[in-house]
């Protein structure tokens, strides 16, 4: 029986088939959510969730309260609120309402199957400098990863391109929508730069064991050349922006040619939007901070496994960190077993702004709550662990006016649970994104339904 | 983010790695230990509140209230803590210096027991996640791979003390994309290794067992002739490739078969039925939920991931409900790691079966304790807290299915191999020792033009896999 036959047996409605022809022969494989692919969004309804525990995140929990949702927004929240007439009532007794979780370090929608299906991989452009590659252009709204992730309470992600030195621009999205535009919250959120790795270093770890000095000097020089290339591009973009502005004011000036690559970087070199630097090791993180200061950028560190070693500098320069390594093995043999488990706690104590991400391309993004929970098992307070996957992420990505907590006027991205949202034994009962009630179905629930009763 | 471990920091790293995780001296491990007033997750007899666990001479000697103990015993206050059996990981490549002998399609003559690296620091990190037993498997490069080794993580002890006494011998089989070497590009002038399709995989295994059956017959006939008193017979030549397959046919060696999709699972069941042997476990078995009744009818176990999916085509139909569906079909199911990283949090992976498939707490606990023990033939020794079983125990500061919990102490045969307080209390001394080492002449930066002598650390298990197939075995 082929996979196709299995899915045909599921009596599914019209399915979209994408057929991959692999070099060794044709293997038919369905990609996406056959049944949950919806061409029409669920409507923005008016809802009141009553008698629930409201975990606002920004303020105190409301032990027995209500949340009103209308026109995609949170209209009211409190111990006693008046619901609009005609609102759909949701009985929240024994349940908790949380803001949707946010993962600020994924490539959601840009890759479906990373291995053996190159046709589904759109994360990494050719060449080192692609600031005009925009994730929002290539996002696949029908990726199965999206529904699989959202039914576990993650309503928003940042989807990042990954290639070269300047990877492109990341998109901050709702995990709901039939087009990239419908999904977009901020279509071009940040420029993504892979800060050059220092070939011979160890994050400054072991002073005594330097590489052969000649080689080390060479390595550092090669590294500096790459940083120089990035510097030059950013400076060009600055000049380009100035020339365009000057021409806009005075059309008697020679008209500067449009240059899409430089154009893409203008808002970033002007500090209007943040630049996300992937950097894990101490020397690289220090390099980013210095470089960003020199170029007057608004940097965010992505990864940051050694950030705890640079905590005071990160605090001083107010550079936030998207921590993706909580569940990675420590990088060095002599690291303590809990070095990365307890890093968020150390950053919190040092006053560094941070959030927690899976750093996963898509499939395992649903494990976000367990990343935060592990940080909490190793020192981070439960409240901060929750913030690390909600409000802190929203703040770092400059979307805290819209998301990250349950407050009047924010977008109604809400998760109703039967327990602590970070706990694996908890179940999600209701899900709202953009004020729309989203069915708790995914490719996985569909396959479960299709096979669980096979006798 | 991706990891990068430079090769040249590693003399000191290796030294410190050992120091960081130096095991407790035997003198500190008395023969009697009492864990007092804990919540005990027995696995087989429910959850016991305010209960003592008595350990004597490496075995669990008592489980009950107000147990008495000799005056020299070590007392551990279990108030507010949870005691559970040490976790058994039924699919690991930890401490293996190499994983895949991938040059041939049938490598039943190679043994993982020959490449054990007792200094692998990831072993200590797994102990810190409450894991005590590992099924060390050969990789998935070939339809019939090498022999496994079941170990207790006796970190700090010699290799021979790691070997789990009495564990059933086993072997790795593999089906599907890794065996077909789907990710290895065709190269001009280089002939691909057979097999290249799931048809060829079946044929390879069929051929091997056909040869093994003949080989067994040759030996059986020889032994019968000797038994009849015939003299001066030459014994058949031993065949180290076929001997393990004969053991499989005789029920003396367990088959652990890496697989993904439904069709290949059915293929191996049919083949095994035809030759009259059993598959002990299907490993990964991510589409097991599609053929659960056939797996159950064969009597095979299933050792799967909690929720991994979509990392390659054959994992695209994987669902996190797999564990629950297979359990309800009557299959003995375990949740494994196949990763030094994931092994550290199998407790959470087991709890996911309650999240996705609504298994009971007891069913979920069994996924990482008794069930994998059954799959390795060690269920009389480990996998539950019962009198007479080995004292392989983890003490948690909260319920192990809570994401906010962590391990305080891990014991094997009653000896402590991980203790969080000890670990923390040694950190200051280690920092001093490290500073001293950094100043040592041998560790100074070498002169210009000379390369430092530094041993290369073995790549991590999953990195070895990357070299082979770009993904997990």
The CATH topology label of one domain in chain B is TIM Barrel
CATH class descriptor of one domain in chain B: Alpha Beta
Structural class of chain A: alpha/beta
**How would you sum up the major sheet of chain B?**
8 strands, mixed
Low-confidence stretches of chain B: 1-21, 449-453, 459-473
CA(first)-CA(last) distance of chain B: 21 Å
Mean pLDDT of chain B: 90
How many structural units, i.e. domains of chain A? 2
**Beta-strand segment tally of chain A:** 18
Q: What is the alpha-carbon Rg of chain A in Å? A: 23 Å
Task: Itemize the secondary structure elements and their pairings.
The complex is a heterodimer of chains A (455) and B (473).
Chain A: H1 3-8, E1 19-22, E2 25-28, E3 47-54, E4 62-70, E5 73-78, E6 88-91, E7 96-99, E8 101-106, H2 135-138, H3 144-150, E9 154-159, E10 166-174, H4 180-183, E11 184-194, H5 213-249, H6 260-269, E12 275-279, H7 282-295, E13 299-303, H8 311-316, E14 321-323, H9 343-350, E15 354-356, H10 368-377, H11 382-388, H12 391-396, E16 414-417, E17 428-433, E18 436-437, H13 443-451
Parallel strand pairs in A: 3-6, 3-7, 8-9, 11-12, 12-13, 13-14, 14-15
Antiparallel strand pairs in A: 1-2, 3-4, 4-5, 7-16, 9-10, 10-11, 16-17, 17-18
Helix pairs in contact in A: 5-6, 10-11
Chain B: H1 10-20, E1 32-41, E2 47-56, E3 59-64, E4 74-77, E5 82-85, E6 87-92, H2 121-127, E7 131-136, E8 144-147, E9 149-152, H3 159-162, E10 170-174, H4 177-180, H5 198-227, H6 243-249, E11 254-259, H7 262-275, E12 281-284, H8 292-298, E13 301-304, H9 322-328, E14 333-335, H10 346-357, H11 361-366, H12 370-376, E15 393-396, E16 407-412, E17 415-419, H13 420-425, H14 427-439, H15 461-469
Parallel strand pairs in B: 1-4, 1-5, 6-7, 10-11, 11-12, 12-13, 13-14
Antiparallel strand pairs in B: 1-2, 2-3, 5-15, 7-9, 8-10, 15-16, 16-17
Helix pairs in contact in B: 1-14, 5-6, 5-7, 9-10
